[in-house]
Amino acid sequence: MKTPYDAALRVRQRELEGMSNAIRTEAGTLAELERAQGHVRAMLADEADLAAGDIALSSPAWLARVRGQQRDIDGRRAASQARIDKLRDMATDAYGTLRGIETAAEGFRAERSRAETAAEQGLVDDLGAVAFLRARREAGR
């Protein structure tokens, strides 16, 4: 049964689907950044092992560059996590609104159904009363 809330429901559902897709995309980005961070940490550990064996192999410029990459990745991870948190908050709000609209639509349907049932019952009662009065009138003749 159609309700006046159907359009709002569809809009909110599409909005929620869009947020869900954005969260999935951002979570993929975050996972990629975490893999990159793991790679940088492994490179630093490997370099530390090599440098421990031969001081001549130590490269302060390379270490500075890799640590700069690590700081960049950390910053991008923090920004990505903040975006995910914001999207999740927005999705929670949108879901709450969606549930409110769904509840209103269900209430509308229930009220419409009650009204239709009452109208049908009223019609049946009226038809029964008419039949009773006819039978009474014919019995009185």
TrEMBL record:
Q: Which domain of life is it from?
A: Bacteria
By what name is this protein known? Flagellar FliJ protein
